[in-house]
Fold:
Amino acid sequence: MLMYTIRYVHRNNTYYIASNSEGKFIIFESLDSEFRMGHQISYENGTIFNLTLNDETDAVIKLESNEKGAYEYLHLIK
Structure:
């Protein structure tokens, strides 16, 4: 299980960028789950758990990338 920290919130609190200590980035879409910048999350096998709120989430991974790739992906989202 990898721990990530939410670094950026995009598009009306729908898309989020999170990174881990290894420099890996994920972009995920929240489907009716609560997240905020700075929240700690875990990600394993496509499942995101909000460690800050101790809550299972309805979120979908959209991309696993490096920092540059993550921000380029967000620029493509309309």
User: Anything to note?
Assistant: The mean pLDDT is 92. Residues 67-76 form the longest helix (10 residues). The radius of gyration is 11 Å.
